[in-house]
Amino acid sequence: MPIQPWNLVFLIGFVAYLGIRHEFGRRIKTNEQSINRMDALEKFLLFVVSAGSLILPVLYLFTPWLSFADYRLPAFVPWCGTAIMLAALWLFWRSHADLGLNWSVTLVVRKNHELIKHGVYRLIRHPMYASIWLWSIAQGLLLENWLAGWSAVVTFAPLYFLRTPREERLMCESFGPEYQEYMCQTGRLFPRLRFSPRTRIRSD
Questions:
Q1: Most buried in the list 42, 81, 148, 168, measured by CB within 10 Å?
Q2: pLDDT at 192
Q3: How confident is residue 194, by pLDDT bands cut at 50, 70 and 90?
């Protein structure tokens, strides 16, 4: 099956996405775990995400099996998808870089784990999840197929909404009041809005 131009753009970004994850995964291999909350639910959610963000796009790109779900988007839409994909890749890389050896693909606390509050974590608690949301949207705008295009959004949503509360409970258990204060200062995916108190002008 010939790869269309926008499919090629997605494929290049996809390889970069996997490359980022592989490189940072390689760096943490020797970093010892102190708490591991990997369970059946976590394994199932990761499998579902793999299907939506890996298996279906690969089937779409390299086989005709999903062609029955093809559709056409306006010409400007893939350009938007490309811009969102580039933003997603930068945020994905920056999130890994800021976490350093503290990163894990699952619910894990590592030995000598640090609470990272600098870089992109200064304003939001889950920039890596934000990058995956952006990537999922870009996938839908670049792959003109109802199944392969939007499968990442559909499959990532359960992982995000089920895992995030569990992850934050684990962080509260590990870092106590420090993480609770951090939660009050930041948003999950977007910076928390801060309003300056109004200055009252008093006239006598």
A1: 148
A2: 87
A3: low
Q: What are the domain boundaries of the chain? A: 5-19+35-185
Whole-number Å distance between alpha carbons of 155 and 54: 11
2 confidence band (pLDDT: 50, 70, 90)? low
Rg, C-alpha atoms of the chain: 20
Residues β-bridged to residue 145: 70
For 2, the 3-state DSSP assignment is coil
CA distances from 109 to 35, 56, 169 (A): 5, 31, 12
Which residues, at least 6 apart from 50, have a Cβ–Cβ distance to it below 8 Å?
none
For 85-141, the pLDDT digits (tens) are: 999 999 999 999 999 999 999 999 998 899 999 999 999 999 999 999 999 999 999
What distance in Å separates the CA atoms of residue 110 and residue 112, rounded to the nearest whole number?
6
| Alpha carbon separation from 51 to 6, 127, 131, 163, 204 (Å, rounded) | 21, 22, 18, 18, 69
What pairs with residue 33 in β-bridges? Answer: 110
The pair of structure tokens assigned to 92 is: 């994905």
Give me the residue label for tokens 């102190």.
34
Amino acid at 25: G
Nearest to 137 by CA among 193, 93, 80: 80
Q: What is the CATH number of domain 5-19+35-185?
A: 1.20.120.1630
